[in-house]
Amino acid sequence: MYMKTKFCLLISSLIILGLQVLIAQQTTISGKITDSETGEFIVGANIIVKGASRGVTSDFDGNFNISAKTSDILVFSYIGYTSQEILIGSNLSINVALVPDVSELDEVVLVGYGTQRKNDLTGSVSVISPERLEEKTNTNFRQALQGSLPGITINTNTANAEGNNVGILIRGRNSISASNSPLVVYDGIPYSGSISDINPSDIKSITILKDASSTAIYGSRGSNGVILIETKKGVSSKPIISYSGYSGVNEIAHIPEVYQGQGFAGFKEVREPGELTQTEIDNLMAGKTTNWLDLATRSAQKQEHNISVSGASKNANYYISLGYQDVQGIAINDKFQRATLRTNVSFNINENIKFGTNTQLSYIDRSGLSPSFSSNAAGAYFTNPLTNAYNPDGSLTLYPWPEEQYFTNPLAPTLADNSNINNKIFTANYIEIKTPFIPGLSYKLNTGVEYSNRNERTYWGRDTARGNLVNGEAIVENIVNENFLIEHILNYKKTFGKHNINFTGLYSAQKITYEKHETIGKGFSSDVLTYFQMNLATLPKEVSQSFDQETLISQMGRLNYNFDDKYLATFTLRRDGYTGFGDNNKYGVFPSAGFSWNVSNESFFPENNVVNNLRLRLTYGESGNQDISSVANLARLDDLSYLDGDVTAPGYIPLVLGNNNLTWETTATYNIGIDMGLLNNRFQISLDAYQSESSDLLLNKLIPSVQGIRRIIDNVANTKNFGVEAAISGFIMDTKDFKWSANSNFSYNKNEIVSLQGGDEDDVANRLFIGQPIRINYGLNFDGIWQTGQDTSGSAQPDAIPGDVKVLDANGDLTISSDDRVFLGQRDPKFTWGLTNTFKYKNFSLDVFIHGVEGVTKRNTTRSTNVFGGVQRNTFVQEFWSVENPINTFYRNDGIVRANVHGVQFYESADFVRIKDITLSYKLDDSLFKLNNIDLKVYLTARNLFTITNWSGLDPELDSQFGAPLQKEFVFGMNIKL
Q1: Are 345 and 187 in contact (CB under 8 A)?
Q2: 60 burial type by CB count under 10 A (0-12 exposed, 13-18 middle, 19+ buried)
Q3: Integer Cα distance of 783 and 807 in angstroms
Q4: Torsion, CA 810, CA 815, CA 819, CA 823, rounded to 10
Q5: CATH superfamily assigned to domain 248-780+823-864+905-977
Q6: Of 827, 809, 811, nearest to 902 (Cα)?
Q7: Cα–Cα nearest to 459, from 552, 352, 536, 553
Q8: How far is CA 232 from each of CA 200, 203, 206, 975, rounded to the nearest angstrom?
Q9: pLDDT band, residue 15 (cuts 50/70/90)
């Protein structure tokens, strides 16, 4: 009995103790979430147990209830507010007042020669943040920019492995003949190299300066906008080891169909009845056809690997990285390999002196020549499919079509022995000194060195038509680029009462040199030694050398003024001197002024949760364009050698007259903008409108003939540019497990030529017209097809027969001539837009990026069936008019294209909407593999998956219609941080 009683007491005690433990483990916590400033309830705030996946959200009255242990920590968060963490302890009722998060307004952005708070900006500045760059997992710089920011247009020429055949426009075009490319500033140094030489994994942020108030600090180089690239620094007190890498494959996105054997024979029989050559007949009878495009392209692989270590302490900061990228192009033998070593280090020598260096060493290998994709009959698109790519022994033919030896094998360049290696050094160094005896005053010395040494060696052997003609040809080329910069920067900051001033003064000097040496040797006894046997050439060597040097001297002053975080102003004045302009105009001065009003900081601004931030901006400024030849102001001669008996006598004639009055192209820009934060800054909106006027544009001006000289480069044209931009971003949904954010942007741009040659006459020969965009299409207008039964008498084409092209008689004079040419749209887009949606569910993230371009018209040369005098080349498959198929879109198939006797070109809309990027990622939970302090993310990315367009050519995004085609990309990658 005693034992039984004792046992019962023991069991009872255990039950009571278990209940006590259970109670200690779990309890219900309740409370209310409010805004610390307005006291209003916050609906949908997140309350999560730290370190666990469970959580709740506040109801319509801000109330919440959550089960947790007394030892737990609760995390309270909501969009637009600073998160709070509270230990439960004995608190069973917790009321939390969340503080509005103004961190986005306080975000520091680069502005050139310094930084500013985002809320203090007066100019138009767009930023791709470090967080966004991490999410996009880009494989090149272009992908980071395209469609991500308003006002940015990417023009892709051809799709190659390097990804460098692109043009970047910021707010459209201003210049007619000089460059429209923006200035790139890399870690504070104006950069003259290729963007593809920069490792994207090292980039921390990208800032775009767009209006003249922002770009005027770069004076003569700022009229086309400025791209500021900042590389990574250490951010943690402990070392962080990071790895990022991917492996992927590229596939051809789209190629229109070209004729193959039987189809080509039928096409040629209509154009040239009975003219098939023996080679064509033999291949046709054997059922043999050569798909040259298949032979010239491939499924291409690519990979990239980056590893870095970074950290920071009170007196030091470091980021060291190694990167390797290997990309194959869609075209066979096209490749791009890049290896980089980066060291970003800074030290505080003492409390007043800081030293830093950002240095990158690069090894770039572009070796190998790709097949020809030219538009002539020796390109992979149009080589006759009834010819032979290979000899019976498997070697490439010299001439695929023996009867027509004008046309060489388009695959022949792949046989050339080509080495193309570039070694680069880029280093930006600085020392910063604070003056303790004058608080707020500091001096910074910047030095930059960019050195590039490219050696390209090519040998065309006897197995190529080019080499076979001369018994081998060797080409050895060396190009050295040097860019030296020194900058003295004085900065002074002062706060007195509600007044804040920040003055920056600059003196800089930059020298850029270019030197090229080339030697060509021909006639070798053997191909074995390739380009290493230059001294054995039996024919006279061709030796050439070129040298160019330009110098820029600059002074700049900038004053930022802030009164009570309400009224802000920025004034800038820069003076540049450039060696490329005439002696009478070596120097130019570029002023700007910008004003901003933080309306939401005014006492009269109502406190509410609808509009939390409201800022107005107004700017004006002038900037220049010096991107022309450094000898543009000099008189130049042209070679005019002549035969004196059996001897060639050298001679020269004047070509261009010198111009000592040559000066800068100047662009004056007005910009008005508004920035808003809505719903506790849940949504951010920026709107900008701008108008720029560019004067003194450089053109070849025709002059009365004086000693044979007919032209001079002069400042004789003007243009204007107008545009509107909008950017909207924010969180659409934010719950415990699911988040949906969106980022969208829209741009409209229109440029117009105001004057040419100093007057109001058009330059028809160069398709330049006053009142029209710079890149306008101009020609005869296709007006359909003459159909059976239509009366041609009394028309401008009385001799037309059914199936002929109908040409618009624009001037109504019943004659088709050059006077009937009309404007047929512009080649630059009017509208561009981008939309990115990011969906996050627990540890999964889906990122979908859509890009659109509208208002573009291009000449579709793939619809041309001009196959030269006879049918000497292939063509894209067309649906021709016939009596049985009386279409109104394309002419009949006829000999020597008689149906299109006027040579009308086909212009089409190149508008498109494209799913540019889809990325699915998963961030592994630490607890899944018992990994502590490890951040691991894996992802899958697909690019250029789907396109909506009416364009029937190669690709609407490509400027060149006969280069390597655009590609789809499929990538698997991972990011690891330890």
Answers
A1: no
A2: exposed
A3: 5
A4: 30
A5: TonB-dependent receptor, beta-barrel domain (2.40.170.20)
A6: 809
A7: 536
A8: 11, 6, 11, 16
A9: very low
Rounded-to-integer distance, Cα 763 and Cα 578, Å: 29
Q: What is the pLDDT of residues 578-606, one digit of tens each?
A: 888 878 888 999 999 999 999 999 999 98
Q: pTM for the whole thing?
A: 0.85
Provide the pLDDT confidence category of residue 871 given band limits of 50, 70 and 90: confident
Which helix (H) or strand (E) segment holds residue 23: the answer is helix 2-25
Q: Which of 28, 30, 33 is nearest to 45 (CA)?
A: 33
Domain 18-100: state its class. Answer: mainly beta
Here the tokens at position 305 are 């690997």
Least confident range of 193-202, 382-391, 464-473, 539-548: 193-202
Phi, psi of 48 (to 5 degrees): -125, 140
Residue 868's pLDDT band, with cuts at 50, 70 and 90, is low
Report angle CA 553, 555, 559 to the nearest 5 degrees: 155
How many residues does the structure list for the chain? 978
> 625: closest CA among 558, 710, 692, 709?
692
DSSP code string of 168-227: EEESS---SSS--PPEEEETTEEE-S-GGGS-GGGEEEEEEE-SHHHHGGGGGG-TT-EE
- Give the rounded percent of residues in the chain with a pLDDT score beyond 70: 91
Q: How far is CA 715 from CA 182, 218, 375, 680, in A?
A: 21, 21, 36, 51
677/654 Cα distance (integer angstroms): 62
DSSP-based three-state secondary structure for 683: strand
% of the chain at pLDDT higher than 90: 59
| Residue from 773, 767, 740, 738 nearest 754 by CA | 773
Please state, in angstroms and rounded to a whole number, the distance separating the CA atoms of residues 955 and 953: 6
- Residue boundaries of the structural domains of the chain: 18-100, 108-234, 248-780+823-864+905-977
Find the radius of gyration of the CA atoms of the chain.
34
Cα–Cα–Cα angle for 530, 534, 538, rounded to 5 degrees: 105
The residue behind tokens 């008498």 is 793
CB of 68 closer than 8 Å to CB of 55: no
Q: Rounded to an integer, what distance in angstroms lies between the CA atom of residue 649 and that of residue 638?
A: 14
Residue 704: both structure tokens together: 């009365």
Q: 7: which residues sit within 8 A by CB, 6+ positions away?
A: none
What's the pLDDT tens digit per position in 114-169? 888 877 888 899 988 777 777 776 667 777 788 889 999 888 777 788 876 678 89
The tens digit of pLDDT for each residue in 212-233 reads: 888 989 988 888 999 999 999 9
Q: What residues are paired with 752 via a beta bridge?
A: 720
Helix 278-285 crosses helix 261-271 at what angle (to 10 degrees)? Answer: 140
Residue 595's DSSP bridge partners are 569, 618
Q: What is the pLDDT of residue 41?
A: 78
* CATH class given for the domain over 108-234: mainly beta
